[in-house]
Amino acid sequence: MKKLLLIAAVAVMGSSAYAQEFRFGPKAGFAMSTMKIDENQDDLGKRSMDPKYTFYIGGMAEYKINDNFGFQAELLYSPLGAKEKIDGINAGIMFVGEQTKVNLGTVLVPISAKYFITEGLSVAAGANFGVILSAKQKTVIGSDFADMEIEGESGEVDIKDDIKKLNIAPFVGVEYMFENGFFIDGRYSMGVSNLSNDGSGGKVTNSFAQIGVGFKFGGN
């Protein structure tokens, strides 16, 4: 009986060890970033937020516990942000509007749990921990006749002191990996951290969607 139990234990350990896989590799893709600003607005025109279309690049590591479950960690860089547009108002004889572009140079550390529906198809849920390395804003005043950059010679100012450094964004995603290790994935991250650091009482959040490709090395 003891021999049978020992053989069964060895068999289970062997099958578990076989099921474990470690893969790693590069990934890159396209990102659509938006920012939401909740604060009291004046009556000078209509304020709206437009997405910023940008990229991300980095690497990933995946540890598959068994045929159905695994974990994944990544290290990515992405210049996130958004565009803020105030539609034109009448200013005397001119029709004047304003557009502001916010650029957040962000290092992202997504950590997720994965469920493998099939060997190649998986879904994931986790959180993006974003460290904002740089924050810049460029404002352009537009009229019927010309556009004029403001706030400095190039129109771009450093707003790093007004932005908090950590952006936490829970996410869900889906991935399909081919037999050769090439994969495509997509996810949406919803920003929950208040990035405003100016003491005005307003709330600023950054959310983003990503779709991209990569390649995984390793595995059995």
From TrEMBL:
Residues 1-19 form the signal peptide. Residues 19-196 form the Outer membrane protein beta-barrel domain. InterPro entries: Beta-barrel_OMP_2, OMP/PagP_B-barrel. Keywords: Signal. This is Outer membrane protein beta-barrel domain-containing protein.
